[in-house]
Amino acid sequence: MLQLNNRTPFEAELTALNDETGVETLYVIVKASFTEGWMLADEPVPVWRADEYYGEPHESSLRYPSEIHLGKTATDILVEGDAWAPGGRPVRQLPVTVSVGRVSQSLMVFGDRRWDQGQISVADPFERMPLTWERAYGGSVAEGDRRRVYSERNPVGRFASAQCTDRSVDGELMPNIEHPQALLRNRDDSPEPVGLGPVAPHWQPRTRFVGTYDQQWRLRRAPFAPEDFSRRFFNVAAPGLVYPGWMRGGEPFELAGMHPDGAWTGQLPEVPLSVSAHHGGRQEPLSARLETLYFQPFKRTVSLTWRASLSCPRDVLSVESVTVSMTRQPR
């Protein structure tokens, strides 16, 4: 019987899935959660086994993306939190930045504003503003039993309907979150939505990589993925926060504008993870890639998720055990 020997203090799970071509594959998922100073978190973040939304799936944004899948193509950087005015003193707008290694994302966060007779009203002061896709540019509207989508990159956002209708939009809420280099000026503007959270599977750009499910697929490939499927579908980070390759740990980071006490800076923890599988009478080392960083800046915590895999063309149960360990302590 397949056993998991987890010799670390981290969360670890096994799952078996058929890959794109139907080959049964064993996946090892390891998740480590740290607080500032890289002490183990008292409440570790679990492995996310299914997509979890803030509300109804087609009416809200994705909060926790499933980690049960075939594997990503690069490291995702996810941030869950709020914009916080420095010292808790209300402001009308606030820059927010996320920099990790070689990537950076900038936001300008405003208090509530409305469209008022061809102009944007003065922003209300705020102390804290949720950094969710609901607060960014985008949107959709219910029409009978369907929804008319104004922004395929963010169907739950704000104000995208303004450029698609001749009706008055006076009084409509403006986005709280914009890109500082592409601020809304006119109702006809259609900037790309910006955010820090995960992208839902039915949003662009993820739907671009899901493949073509047509008659040829039904005849030749079903139930496996179509030939034009790309694993980039499993990368859920916002545009600009998918790393150009695999992170290793130890990269510098800075998260600014998301804590009343100021920016959080440091270097990612370095975790010397070792994963191996015992099968066929031998121990085989498996390569574990760092797939996801998940920051919670107000709590000053970060979670790192690695994935290793082993193709089992004959039978996944031929694997006797999987061992997860560390060659030394994290630093």
From TrEMBL:
Ranges for domain DUF2169 come to: 22-307
Matching Pfam families? DUF2169
Q: What is this protein's name?
A: DUF2169 domain-containing protein
Q: Which organism is it from?
A: Marinimicrobium koreense
